[in-house]
Prior knowledge:
By secondary structure, the chain is mainly alpha-helical. It contains four helices and two strands; from the N terminus they run βααααβ. The chain has helices at 14-37, 41-60, 64-71, 94-114, and strands at residues 8-11, 117-120. It has a two-stranded antiparallel sheet. The protein is globular, with a radius of gyration of 16 Å.
Amino acid sequence: MTSPEPGEYREFSAGDRHSQMLELATSCERMGRILAAHGDVHFAAMFRCRAQFAEELIRSGYVKSDLDALGGSLPSGPEWLNPKAVDFGGRREPWHAEVAELHARALGVAARLRAVALWHGA
């Protein structure tokens, strides 16, 4: 998807939506695998569930309320991702950084899934 020009409004196309759901599914599946490998089966299962939901919508079709449900149900993730956590910003392993990056990307996609268009103010 190309970004709109200043002062332009552009609705998301079916192709944009497909790409967004695929990116969310891929990010969530990857987070699920990483978290499971490091013993966090709770959040691993939650992220894998979101990946499966996105994949199902890609296969079966969707309406706007499905996109809202998918975009609005992204798990917050493990406590160490919470900026209010006591140990936030503490020493992390490389896999923590990967999960944090994937989660930030997924949050951006989730916000776009709930939107109907992009607006670039003048």
